[in-house]
Structures are given as structure tokens and as C-alpha cells.
Amino acid sequence: MIAYIVRRILFLVPVMIGVLAFVFLMRALVPGDPLEIMFLGQMPPDQATLTKLRHQLGLDEPLPLQFVDYMWSIAHGDLGQSVRTRQPVTAELGYRYRNTLILTFGSLFVALAVGLSMGILAAVYRDTPIDVVTMMLAMFGLSMPGFWFGLIMIMVFAVDLRWLPVMGSGGLVYLVLPALTLGLIASTIIARITRSSMLDVLSAPYVRTARAKGLRERVVILRHALRNALIPVVTILGLQLGGLLGGAFIIEVVFAWHGVGERAIQAISQRDFPVIQGITLVVAATYVLVNLLVDVLYSMLDPRIVYE
Amino acid sequence: MTRAWYLRILVLVLSCLVVDVGLVMPLPQATPAAAQRGGTLHLALGEDPDTLDPHATVSLTSSQVQSLLYASLVYIQSNGLPAPLAAQSWTISPDGKAVTFKMRPGLKFQDGTPLDAQAVEFTFKRHMDPATASPSTNQLGPLSAVTAVDNLTVRFTFKEPYAPFFTNLAGSYLSILSPTAVRTLGKDLGHNPAGAGAGPFMFKSWTPGSEIVLARNPNYQLGSYRNDTQNKGLPYVDELDLKVVPEVGTRIAALETGELDVSALTLEAVPRFLNNPKFQVITKKDANDIVFVEFNYKRAPFDDPKFRTALGWAIDKQAIVRNAWGGYATPNLTPMPVGDAGYDPKIGDQYGIGYDPKKAGQLFDELGWKLNPQTRIREKDGQPAKFTCWTYSGFETVKRGCEVIQANLKDVGIDVAVNLTDFGTMSGQMPKAQFDFDLMRWTYADPTILSLLFKTPGWEKLFSDAALDAALNRADTTLDPVKRVQFVKDAQVMILQKAVIVPILTDWLITGARAQVQGLRLDHFGAILYQDVWLQK
Lengths: 308, 537
Description:
By secondary structure, chain A is mostly helical. Chain A is about 80% helix and about 0% strand. Chain A is built from 12 helices and no strands. In chain A, about 35% of the residues are buried. The mean pLDDT of chain A is about 85. Chain B is α+β, with helices and mostly antiparallel strands. Chain B is about 30% helix and about 25% strand. Chain B has helices at about 5-20, 60-70, 115-130, 165-170, 180-185, 250-255, 270-275, 305-315, 315-325, 345-350, 355-365, 395-410, 425-430, 450-455, 465-475, 480-495, and strands spanning about 40-45, 75, 80-85, 85-90, 100-105, 145-150, 155-160, 200-205, 210-215, 240-245, 260-265, 280-285, 290-295, 330, 370, 375-380, 385, 385-390, 415-420, 435-445, 500-505, 510-515, 515-520, 535. Chain B has a 6-stranded mixed sheet. The two termini of chain B are about 20 Å apart. Chains A and B meet through helix 2, helix 3, helix 5, helix 7 and helix 11 of A and helix 6 and helix 13 of B.
């Protein structure tokens, strides 16, 4: 098991190199130059200033060479500096990554709590109005654009009801709306998967056996059925976590939640490549690690799964 | 009259103003209530500023904060012309190559050190120093030297006369820094510029990515020297709390809940605030922006001024004002923003390209673009008139404007597809001449905007016209304001005659605020004069 985990972590290195090579390739393909965008609508700088700035920022080297340089810096724990703020990317991303993680786990909590209960309810009360209504809600949530849903949440809970603040980060009270928005959207898939997985399990012989033993229905559902129904849910959860980190980009902007995503959107529009690369690296690494965590969770849920 | 009643009437008057676009009505004077001191004003920034070192940035957001911290030699009055601020007066040498400023005696930076001629010299030397590698050195123009003649006299010497210098001087990039603070702070100047300026507010704190807090400068000395403010003393509010809120819809919702006190409004949001006594809406109609159609001058048929003119006559400017900007814009047939010195609607009336689809059709016919009765699309040499109008995402107004143009051109037999893309992509494609024409919006508070847009090779890097270059150079090297404005007008006429662009409108700056916020006024650049703002308790 340990060897397996170590191997998976080592696997991160080629993945990261691949992802970064892809980002560099995008740089060659996507139009727009960071310095030109910086000076849009302003007095254009003279060529000498432009050349000097380009040199200072290392933008005058051929792209493959920049890639090699970048790899070398990463190996030394340096992600370069932002084209705009001239601050080290590591310093900028540190506190933002923490904020993003807080939001991600907050929404994961909402997604699990809502998604699991909806899924279980729908499965247990199959083909009743409860089932129909929950699954309709799930369908609705699945098809809603996050950006729009976020603004609706703001209109209802912040502007009309005045229960919660519109924006900001810091206290728990600021976390509620963005976490609800992201979590409710993510909960819909979890609800659907839980339902279908529970339905499979509920018709399995061991559940009938458990009932025949005279166990209470609650114990049958929660201890015997749910645990076995959870494996596909955990798979989806791993993907969802990645999705949450990605979906959080837009939601962070809507709620002025100062995480990695908010910075990413700014950096992309400014073509601030060092920041984009840094964020890509961090998000990709998180994604890989989360999937590793999911694989480990499998074997905890189902002792029959063994990694070598 | 009670305050509530007064507000109701204010709202009424404002809504009349908005409904009847053509009506010029002076804004009602505020009730002469005594201004109250104290409180914190909650404001929003569109992004986290990159740095507060004026020499290390060209970001408009950073400039917004810097202009509160640092003082400038001059400011721009509402008529677009400069007036002295930290300077007391200036003289211009007969050849226009030297400008000598006399400083006001006894001025001090927030760190207590003197703001004198030496400080000015230090600041500009730092700006010009190659080691500083400032991205904004072009704001200095052909400046060659800055010399402190004595404690209160400082001389700027130029290689050639440079008229836009005064507007640049009023902006934050050319504001004055305390030499002592710059030396002690070193690299920290960018993120903790305590004491470095002489502006109305002092730096208090910056939580990266989140908020910046400024406090009143208790020793502010320049309040009485501006004629666009009413408060001649210290700022009324204790603190300005500037929160980073990137999404405009969120800023507006936060204004509604009172988390923000003031925010720029989108057109869609205006009605919610206009008919609500808890809020006020102020509009600045003499704004510094211009919306226009520009072309790919390297691609036929847009390389032909006559074709561009024909296209221009087919565009209904009033309809764009009405349908794309909801009436919150002034039709503008001149290439100059309504708020900039040198704007003259008569130039538009006389030389502008108005709306006349018949005339457009006639011009197209003369050029050989004949209507194919089957397709209802014009053709020339078997080529159908199918073009693409580019525009950039993030601005509903500009996108809707493109759609109106699409409909207008369809009426005269030109088939237009709208291509919506992000600004970076669009501006990256432009120099490669991979487009037909686009709808563009520029903001600049000095008549040199014409040079920025059209002087060879133009901002698109596709345009060149020697006669226009000469006309723009004349305007940019004439320091006498009256003569400069005349040259600026000549250049405008030339631009219209060559149909370089098809000017459409200048849109208004719309600001919403809670009713408690008093004394809201905007300066020439459209920035709020926080000097005057106070909070009613």
C-alpha cells in the first residue's frame, strides 16, 4: 500500500511536466501579449522601455528556452513572479490556495449532506412523489449555470432577506453563500448516483438477509446498504472535488472570495503567464492527489480492494 | 422641507433627466446642510492593485488608489485645462521647451518632510532612471531634465514642446514622492507606502487580494487650491475602505445591502436605484470616452475611404444610443470624447458621418457594390458583401451596439456576422490584420487621444497617414491652450474627411450611492472627489 502511494506521488512529476508543456503550448497559440494588454488604452511605451520590460520579465527568450528555465526554477521551489504585480507567484498563491481549500471543503460538506440525503430518500421512497420531486430538483440543479445561480443566491439571501452578506472572506458567515451555491450544484450529481447505487444494493440478497434477521430498517439502510452503495459515490466525489476547484473559479469571482480562481480569471485576461502557470500547477497537483486519496478510500470502504 | 421630501424630489428630477435625454437641466444644489465629519466610506476596487509605487505600474485600478495618496503639481479643471495644485504657478519659455514651476511654500509630505523643488527633482529623476524601469516613462514625453533651481523653483526641460504633459502631470503616475520615504521604504513603497505622499488620504493597511484602507491625512494642505471641490479643509470622512470586488453584479448587490456606499452602475441596474429613495444616481455626461467603428485598413474594401464612408452613413447612431446604451449616452459624430478639450459638436454637424441609408446605398452603388435582388446582398466582381464585426466580451453595451450595426447594414445589403471574443485575443489578432472592422471604446482625458489612436502606426498598428501625423504633431507640440485646441479641431476634421473611423457616441458615467452619502462630485477624469464626500448620520 505504502509503495503504491509513493509510486502514485512520483507519478505526479511526469503529469506536471505534461500539464506545463501544454500550458506553454497554449501560450504559443493564444493571441495576446502580456505587455501589449498592459498598455491597452494607455500611452504606448517606446520600444526601448518595452524591450527592457520584456527582458526583465524573461519574455524575450524563445518559448522552449523559457520552458526549460521555468522547469529549473520549479525544481528550486520558485514559480517566478507575476508580470503585473512583480510579486513572487508562490507568495500570491499561498493565502489564495488556503481560501480556495476552505471554500472547496465547505461546499463539499454541503454537497455530501444534501446529495446523500436526497439520494437515500429517493431510493428508499422509490417511485413515490418524494422520489420524483428530489430527482426533479437534482435535474434542475444539474442544468443551472453556476454564475447565474450565484447571483440568484445573492439576490435572495443577501439583497432581499438580508440574512447573509453579499461578499467578502474572513469569517464563517462569508463562507455560507458561496459554499451553498457550489455545494448545491455539486449535490445534484451525488444525489443521482447515490439513488441508483442504493437501488442496486437494496435489491441485493444480503439486504434481504439483513431484513430477515429482523434488523431495524434504519440499520439496514445506513449500515448495510449505504456503505456498499458508497463506492461509486466516492468515485464521483473525487471528480467533483476537482470540479469544485474548477467551478470555484467563477463562483469566487461572483462572491469576491479571494481564492485561486479569482486570481486565475484576472491573470488569464491579463495574459499574466507566470501566475497562470502557477495556478495550473497547483490545481493539477491537487487533482492528482485527490484522486489518489479516492483510491485509498476505496480500499477502506471495501477491504476486498487491495493495491500493490 | 424635510430631508425625505427633498430626496424624493431629487429622484424625480433625476428620472426626468434620464427620460428626456436632450434636456439640459442643472443638477439641483444640495441642501446647505452642515457637512458632518467622521465615518468610513465603503468602496469597491475592480481588482487588487498591482503596486502603489506610481513609477511601477500602468494599472488604472492602482492609479485610482495612488491619486488619493499622492499630490500632483497640477490638476485638471472641469473644462479640461490645467490649474496649479502643489505648484503655485508656472511659466513656459518662448520656444515651449522649458516649463518652470513655482512651488507653494511650506508644503509637507505625510511623513513631515518638505514637499519642495528638490522633492520634485528627486521624483522625476527616479521616474526617468533606467534602473527604475518604469513602464510609464512615456507619460513624460520628450522630457530631458528636471532641475531644482532653488527650494521653490523647479524647471522641466524638453527636447521639443509637449502639450499632453499637463494632463499627464495631473495623473497619479507623475505625482510627487517624498525622497525620505522612498529611501527608507525601499521595495516596500509598492505595498506599504506610509508617509510617501501629500494627498488627502494616508495609507493605513493592505490585505493582499482583499482590501486597502486609507485614513484622512490630518495635515492635508492642498484642499483650498482646487476649484472643483467645495470643501476647502480636511477630508470629512475618517477612512476609505476599498474592497476588491471583481464582479460588477456583486458590487451592485453590495450597494443595495449597504455593504458598499458608492459603486459604478451598469445600465441594467440603474432603474432599481433611480426609483428608490434610499439611493441616489449621478451621471457624468461630459465623459472622456468615445465609441467608434474602426477598420482593417490593410484589407479591401476597408482600405478605401469611400467604402468606409458608405458604411458609416448606414449606421444609425441614435438607434445605438437608444437600443444599446438605453439612452445613457450622447450621440457624438466627432472623434473627440465629449469631455475632452477640443470637443466641438459643430465639427460633427459639418463633417461628421450621420445616418442616411439612401446615401449609403448610393455610395455603395458608385463603388460597384450592386445589390443582388435574389440574395438581397450586394456583390462586386462576384464577391458577396459578407463581413465580420468584431467586438469584445464583458460589455453588454458594446455587444448590443454591434447587433444594431448588423441590422443597419443588413438594410443596405451588407451581411455582417458578429464575432465576440475576449479583449486580449482581439487586440492580439489586430496587428495581424485578421479582421474586417470592429466596434471599439476608448477612454482618455486629453485631446492627445487622437495621437494615441491614429498617429502612425495607429493603436491597431495598421494605419498610417503622413498628413494626419503632421496635424497631430502640431497639436501635441503647441502649449498655448487656445492654439492647441484649434490644431486639435483641424486634426478632427481630417480624420472625418478620410473616414478613418465612424464615431458613434460618448457614453455617460453612472454612479450609484446610498442616500446617506453627501457631496458626491466627479472631477475631470470622472473620479469621485472624496475631499467633498461626507456621511449623514
